[in-house]
Amino acid sequence: MSALQYDTLRPLMFSIAYRMLGSVAEAEDVVQEAFLRMHKSELDGVAVDSPDAFATTVTTRLAIDALRSARVRREQYVGQWLPEPLMISDDADPAHRLEADETVSTAFLVLLESLSPLERAVFVLREAFGYEYADIAEIVEKSPANCRQILTRARRAIDERRPRFDPDLSRQAELSRGFLAAAQDGDMDALTRLLADDVVFVGDGGGKVPALAQPVRGPIQVARFLGGLLKQARRTAMRIDTDSANGMPAWRVHASDGALLAVMTMEIADGRIRALHNQMNPDKLHHLGTVGDLNTILGRTP
């Protein structure tokens, strides 16, 4: 396989694997293994009419297998599980610059965890990439009729809890900046007004750093909790910057030496924040650069 084919196919393959697994590291492993298998097929003289279709098939099948294995680990995960964030500003890899749609948002990737690996594959291929049922059937080795049934079942599970999104990116960014300013000023009334009635705050420490065992729900409770986090950030000289991750507004939290400590994404709909997802597990941040030791900074143990 030529370097040109590698560069051309890798973004597609990573896009599929990341949506399937919610993990940058696991998606990269799948893509690498897929290229190895494709190269072996080439050496074995296997004729490939469409490199894109072949890459999609190999990547999807490997991602299904990887997800089946990952689900066992995630059932034993300490605390709340959140996907690894993708931030263009901190990631120079062009394959990681996914098209921003709801299927790469943190909330949606969490929701996809409720599907079986096969349901997730069919859903991702149809909803995110628009593949025809006949093509999906060939990829997952099921009949087209069966794939229709699988997608119907997956949509039913998703639609019951499907997040709502505000499509206006400039308005999202403005709300994110206003929210951070209110939080830093300790303006609890302003914070509460910017939070939806059903807002939820979820933190992922993975047992590596102190994190919530259960989500915080409700505007008053979330505002108070955020107020406490901001006080802690000021006490330890942390820096908080607005950014975007997974196509949504985000905050990047840095230690005083610039090392990354957390990425918090927010889901916005109808002019208010409906969800905050705080990724603090250092194992899920290393792809973004140097990660700081939050335990040492806080003087605490996980």
CATH homology group of the largest domain:
PhyR, sigma-like (SL) domain
Structural class: alpha+beta
What's the Cα radius of gyration? 20 Å
First-residue to last-residue Cα separation: 46 Å
Taking pLDDT < 50 over at least 5 consecutive residues as the criterion, the unreliable ranges are none
CATH architecture label of the largest domain:
Up-down Bundle
Please report the first level of CATH classification, the CATH class of the largest domain: Mainly Alpha
Main sheet specs: 6 strands, mixed
Average pLDDT works out at 89
Spell out the helices and strands N to C.
HHHHHHHHHEEHEEEEH
Helix % is: 40-55%
**Beta strand count:** 6
Q: What share of the residues does DSSP label as strand, in percent?
A: 5-15%
Count helical runs. Answer: 11
Please give the domain count: 2
Instruction: Name the overall outline.
Output: globular
Widest beta sheet: strand line-up: 2-1-6-5-4-3
Q: What is CATH's topology name of the largest domain?
A: Butyryl-CoA Dehydrogenase, subunit A, domain 3
Family: Belongs to the sigma-70 factor family. ECF subfamily.
GO molecular function, one term: DNA binding
Domain SnoaL-like: 177-274
Keywords: Sigma factor, Transcription, Transcription regulation
